[in-house]
User: What shape does this take?
Amino acid sequence: MSEETSRKIRSLNDTFRASLITPTPLGKLYATSGIAAHGTDFQIRAIEAVVAFSAFTDDIDPSQTHDMMRVVVDNIIVWAKIDFYDKADPDLGAEDPSDPSTTERVMTILLPSEY
Assistant: This one.
């Protein structure tokens, strides 16, 4: 992947992540049953932590596209992962995640044990 493509994807992912508090049509957000089991307040704190996350490192984000996050909420490790799907056929992965006209972003917030 070129540095320019990586930069575009990173920018779109950061914009999508920031939009989680006030949803926009950039994508969808899902929480797993493990996250839901901790209650609504925990889910809100987890989303807020993901939105505020900025500690991207090569071990968690080797592609430098900001599509994987690791946060700690109430002493519980929480992962957030952005996947890319084709808007025309959501059963397919996005052909070009740097093109928002054809790509839908889907973030899943989960516990590491659910991966």
Summary: The chain has three helices and four strands.
